[in-house]
Amino acid sequence: QVQLVESGGGLVQPGGSLRLSCAASGSTFSNYAIAWFRQAPGKEREFVANINGSGGRTIYADSVKGRFTVSRDNAKNTAYLQMNGLKPDDTAVYYCKTADSWGQGTQVTVSS
Fold first, then answer.
1. What is the pLDDT of residues 66-91, one digit of tens each?
2. What are the φ and ψ backbone dihedral angles of 29, each rounded to 5 degrees?
3. Residue 70 in 3-state DSSP?
């Protein structure tokens, strides 16, 4: 089973940027897609973005399209979520996942 560890969260002002990382171990990284989800306080967990195993295909939620970019470096067993133009509504715990594993999450807070 794959183990996933997110990092890179923090406090940022509206309009700012953060890059989240998702480090994987335990399996051949390029064999599986990575998805990012987020969960805000009092809300259900929602899909943010997905990238396939080769990195050649990405999908985004409408709410982040044009602001967030998902990528991966298979040589480093790491996926990334570059977040630009952050808004207070982006405040949430962000998780990366594979088909059968979730990371522990990293907190992103957008506030002035």
1. 999 999 999 999 999 999 999 999 99
2. -60, -40
3. strand
